[in-house]
Design goal:
binds acetyl coenzyme *A; single chain; Cytochrome p450-Terp, domain 2; mainly alpha; 2 domains
């Protein structure tokens, strides 16, 4: 059957492929709304558990509901032996963290097999996968370093546990607040590639763990989960404020893109950059290297000015990656954990989109435009 006539839109740009109440990205105004809240309102106040509850239930939890969710996640945080064995095998091969995370996330199905009290398999899968991603990332990091994983502490919340399991002891309030702000800021962002991938998978009637594994695969790509690492590398390369202009000018002169600037959707400053800049400022003022933060501000100012010179009127502004890099570095995370940590936050959105897709959605099955040959005739092998 011919699939012609649908009108091909490369990259599906401008195509509306879902209705959602979860988040809205206004690229022209530079606004991000998450379940009705401006991201600025949410990020500076919410804990990760509150964001998860909000996305799953479209309302903030009361104290009892929040306590229940915290407890439900705490019970599912420790990894089964099979997951740890898999991580040990991956570490012995030096597998990159995103690949190890993708493989180990699939083992959440082992947990999700224990039906929840109300028998809701998708909800149980969501709890299992949200709870275990930070444990996997932290355990794998330690295994790569030849150390033993640190067991989660049931008394600590989700963000605090992540830092704790990375081996730094019980984290200070400033670090926990900074990580909460990061996780809330990246929890959901419209119909981005990994979220779309998750929705496509559950739209077939497949399970939620499969959807998260697929989403992790999509997030890993450099055009999406990105590389906040390179943005930080540039700040380190510059080293001191007076070198910002010559170094950045030289990069632009060589035709390089300045990492951490520009965005496909936002044509003004990415609102997440503001939120994370504030969080980073607080973190660096208390726990961090204030000189590095000051240098990053100089680099940002210089880069924006040079980009205006380089591409006048394009308004190339700071994107989320620039301050992500600074914030996660300030929390002591190595660059190879930046994308896995993005997944630790974004899984809140992935799971919520899976619920939404299952409730309201339809099998996602677009069309393609056939541009191949027609009416070929079979040639026996000796005649080819
Ligand atoms: N440095 C130098 N030049 C740039 C930059 C940059 N950071 N960003 C865009 N430009 C240039 C483009 O080359 C283009 O030039 P041209 O018209 O001569 O071809 C012009 O500015 C306009 O580019 P856009 O169309 O606005 O950019 P596009 O939508 O194609 O790309 C992207 C967006 C990929 C984010 C780009 O800005 C970029 O490569 N930035 C650097 C990498 C980066 O920070 N990535 C993380 C993005 S945040 C996220 O995805 C979570």
């Amino acid at each position: 059957m011919s699939e012609r006539g649908a009108g091909f839109v490369p990259g599906l740009e401008g195509v509306v492929a879902a209705e959602t109440r979860l988040s809205h990205v206004d690229g022209a105004a530079g606004e991000l709304t998450v379940a009705g809240f401006p991201v600025e309102e949410l990020a500076n106040r919410a804990t990760f558990e509150e964001v998860v509850y909000l996305l799953w239930h479209d309302a903030l939890p009361d104290a009892g509901q929040l306590a229940d969710l915290r407890e439900a996640l705490a019970r599912r945080r420790a990894l089964p032996r099979a997951t740890l064995d898999l991580l040990r095998a991956a570490a012995s091969e030096g597998t990159p963290p995103m690949d190890a995370l993708r493989m180990a996330a699939g083992t959440a199905s082992l947990r999700a097999g224990d039906a929840s009290a109300d028998g809701d398999a998708a909800y149980e899968e969501a709890l299992a996968v949200v709870a275990c991603l930070p444990t996997i990332v932290a355990a794998y990091r330690l295994l790569l370093d030849g150390e033993e994983p640190v067991d989660p502490d049931p008394e600590l919340g989700h963000a605090a546990n992540y830092l704790y399991m990375l081996g730094g002891g019980v984290p200070g309030d400033g670090s926990v607040r900074a990580l909460e702000a990061y996780l809330a800021t990246v929890a959901d962002h419209g119909l981005n590639a990994s979220t779309f991938a998750a929705r496509v998978i559950v739209s077939t009637g497949s399970d939620l763990v499969s959807a998260v594994v697929g989403a992790l695969g999509a997030l890993k790509g450099p055009l999406h989960g990105g590389a906040p690492g390179p943005a930080l590398d540039v700040v380190f390369e510059i080293g001191e404020a007076r070198r910002a202009e010559p170094v950045l000018r030289e990069k632009l002169g060589r035709g390089e893109r300045l990492m951490g600037f520009g965005h496909r959707v936002y044509k003004v400053r990415d609102p997440r950059a503001d939120v994370l800049a504030t969080a980073a400022e607080l973190l660096y003022a208390t726990d961090g290297d204030a000189a590095l933060y000051g240098l990053a501000l100089e680099v940002e100012k210089t880069a924006v000015a040079l980009l205006e010179e380089h591409k006048p009127g394009r308004n190339l502004q700071t994107n989320v990656e620039f301050y992500t890099a600074l914030l996660l570095h300030g929390l002591g995370l190595p660059t190879e954990l930046f994308t896995p940590t993005f997944a630790v936050g974004r899984v809140a959105g992935w799971t919520a989109h899976c619920f939404e897709q299952t409730e309201r959605g339809r099998l996602i099955r677009p069309q393609s435009e056939y541009v191949g040959e027609r009416d070929r005739r079979w040639l026996p092998i000796e005649e080819r």
